[in-house]
UniProtKB/TrEMBL annotation:
Zinc finger (C4-type): 4-31
Source organism (scientific name): Cyanidium caldarium (Red alga)
Molecular function per GO: DNA-directed RNA polymerase activity; nucleic acid binding; zinc ion binding
Annotated function: DNA-dependent RNA polymerase catalyzes the transcription of DNA into RNA using the four ribonucleoside triphosphates as substrates.
Subcellular location(s) per record: Nucleus
Keywords of this entry: DNA-directed RNA polymerase, Metal-binding, Nucleus, Transcription, Zinc, Zinc-finger
Protein name (Swiss-Prot/TrEMBL): DNA-directed RNA polymerase subunit
Residues that hold Zn(2+) 1 according to the record: 4, 7, 28, 31
Ligand binding (Zn(2+) 2): 81, 84, 109, 112
Length: 119
């Protein structure tokens, strides 16, 4: 699925086989944006170039939230590890369910590496 880089609408297939100069590609049903496929182009090449061009124009929409790396954690001494009893625990919070529910807190023990979460 391709999106219009100007209005973010889903592009529809444009089949110009009945024109004097056949054109195959995609067009936006809202604005005048057209993306014409050139002859002999590989589909994967077109997908890669289009994705790179769109990514360079704006931030990606609906980015997937991940737990992140070690830099996403903050250290606390208010929580005790359930496995080894250490008080040096790192944590971070993330919204994992709907917006009307609380944040989920992910913990990681610095001493033993045990991980758990609280909702």
């Amino acid at each position: 699925m391709f999106l219009c880089p100007f209005c973010d609408r889903k592009l529809s297939v444009m089949d110009g086989a009945f024109r004097p100069m056949p054109q195959v590609g995609f067009r936006c049903p809202t604005c005048s944006y057209r993306f014409v496929l050139r002859r002999g182009a590989l589909c994967q090449d077109i997908l890669d170039r289009t994705a790179a061009r769109i990514a360079g124009d704006r931030e990606p929409r609906g980015a997937v939230i991940s737990e992140g790396g070690a830099g996403a954690y903050q250290e606390t001494s208010q929580v005790r590890c359930m496995q080894c009893g250490a008080t040096r625990v790192a944590y971070h919070q993330m919204q994992t369910r709907s917006a009307d529910e609380g944040m989920t807190t992910f913990y990681r023990c610095i001493s033993c590496g045990h991980q758990w979460r609280e909702q």
